[in-house]
Design brief:
The complex is a heterodimer of chains A (113) and B (366). Chain A is 86% helix and 0% strand. By secondary structure, chain A is an all-alpha fold. The longest helix of chain A is centred in the last third of the chain and has 34 residues. The two termini of chain A are 19 Å apart. The chains are: A mainly alpha (113), B alpha/beta (366). The interface between A and B is medium-sized, with 15 and 20 residues.
């Protein structure tokens, strides 16, 4: 088992689940944890030797660029705007998780070959 | 129907190798940044808990604490006993994390290898834009002199050399395009744009290495007419072998220099003229030049007289190579130019260049 991959995949999934929970029930603490897990997932993706590294990094950055302004809007007194931005980040996080699955399948095929 | 030329842009393996290494270096940043990120997150969460959810001030308080700025307790609840205990532990752990992360970032960004990789990637981008250039494999004194002549002529070239001496010479001569990689590797030749290049000059110091690069280059560009390979050889016998193995011409430098000197020794009375032709032949004369134009089947000049061509082209037709290969120097104006031969033109470089471009354009259209 690749421990680095395990930690990165954990944060990619965690980013999605916390994002869902914020969208379902908007809460400042939940949003903060979503931002923290998203940023951690993005930082862990730096320099990863995956087949779809660039795509994963791009989706991670998209989610971060939605969630960081969302955090600002939430605490600046505009929670509806924060929620709508979090929906955008959620789309990026879903793509991110799908990419992780595709990448894992691709890599196992390449290793077999 | 005229087929449109489409330039295909391919990612070379060398570029992929450089990019992979670049990301490997950047990967060193990942773990320290994640630790710093979690330290900031824990600090912010702690102050949010103490202050009852004041995110902006909690984040600010964390940054000034672990960044050793310490303006004081700017968030509510930080000056309580619980707050002070939390700040103490955050400062003890956070300051170490912050300073080590800054150190790692500085070390990575000031790493010479990272800067070198960045320069090499920029160089690859520039080389990808070249077309009709020459590749000089190996950069000793002779190739360095050739590079000077090419630069004077405005002819782009890419130097391939991975030796210390070669790289020092490249830096000294401020070569525009070079790759510090093993020249006989296929990926190096592809990165140097061999598919778009006009020719290759091989001078790697020993014949075995010269043969290996000629073999690799000929696998990529097999047509001798389309892509010229000129090689240096350590002996006249090896020069012949290199030509048989794929070089258009292989030169034994000793013989070339001796031949050039002998020409001066045997013609002392016409040293100026000798020197002029010598410089023309070796591309050192930039104002005037020679041009050989082959008169293939259907060439518009075939069947016309030398006098007509002299008047129309504005250059001197100095010789005619007949289809049988004989060089005819006594050309009168009424001499008809035959198909299958070649004309040797002598004139101003810019006029000859325009003529060459015109001929190439006419050839492409046909």
């Amino acid at each position: 088992m690749n421990s680095r991959k395990l930690i990165t995949d954990f944060f990619v999934l965690m980013a999605l689940t916390t994002n869902v929970s914020f969208v379902v029930n908007p809460n400042g603490l939940e949003l903060f944890i979503t931002v923290v897990t998203n940023l951690a997932a993005t930082l862990l993706k730096v320099g990863e030797g995956r087949v779809l590294s660039a795509e994963l990094m791009a989706t991670g950055l998209v989610a971060d660029l939605h969630l960081i302004p969302a955090l600002y809007f939430y605490y600046a007194g505009d929670p509806p705007e924060a929620v709508s931005l979090a929906w955008g980040a959620l789309a990026a996080n879903i793509v991110s998780v799908l990419l992780v699955v595709i990448d894992t399948v691709l890599k196992s095929y390449m290793e077999e070959e | 129907m005229r087929r449109r030329k489409v330039r295909r842009k391919t990612r070379t393996r060398l570029r992929e190798r450089y990019e992979r290494r670049l990301f490997e270096i950047l990967r060193e940043l990942s773990i320290p940044l994640v630790i710093l990120h979690f330290t900031l997150a824990v600090g912010t969460l702690g102050y949010m808990w103490l202050s009852g959810g004041d995110f902006i001030n909690s984040f600010y308080m964390t940054v000034i604490t672990i960044g050793t700025i310490g303006y004081g307790e700017v968030v509510q609840g930080a000056d309580t006993t619980a707050g002070r205990i939390f700040t103490t532990f955050l400062a003890l752990g956070g300051i170490g994390v912050f300073t080590s992360t800054i150190t790692v970032i500085a070390r990575v960004f000031f790493k010479e290898e990272l800067q070198q990789l960045w320069r090499r990637l920029s160089m690859l981008n520039a080389i990808e834009r070249l077309e009709g250039h020459y590749i000089l494999a190996g950069f000793d004194e002779a190739t360095a002199e050739l590079a000077r002549i090419l630069a004077r002529r405005g002819q782009p070239f890419v130097v391939l050399d991975d030796t210390q001496e070669g790289l020092a010479r490249i830096a000294e001569q401020r070569v525009d395009y070079y790759l510090p990689e093993a020249p006989f590797e296929r990926e190096t030749l592809l990165a140097a744009g061999i598919r778009r290049a006009a020719g290759l000059v091989v001078n790697l110091g020993d014949d075995a290495r010269n043969i290996s690069i000629i073999a690799v280059a000929r696998l990529v560009r097999p047509d001798k007419e389309d892509f010229a390979i000129y090689s240096f050889a350590s002996s006249p016998e090896n020069a012949q072998k290199l030509e048989e193995l794929g070089a258009n011409r292989a030169f034994y430098p000793g013989r070339m220099v001796a031949g050039r000197l002998a020409a001066y020794l045997f013609h002392p009375e016409s040293s100026y003229l000798q020197g002029l032709f010598d410089r023309l032949a070796f591309g050192e004369e930039t104002d005037v030049d020679l041009l050989e134009v082959r008169l293939d089947e259907g060439h518009p000049w075939a069947g016309r007289t030398v006098g007509e061509l002299r008047r129309e082209l504005g250059v001197n037709v100095v010789a005619l190579r007949t289809p049988a290969g004989r060089l005819d120097l006594d050309l009168t104006d009424d001499r008809v130019v035959p198909e299958g031969g070649a004309l040797i033109l002598f004139g101003r470089t810019e006029r000859l260049e325009k003529l060459r471009e015109r001929l190439e354009a006419a050839h492409e259209l046909s």
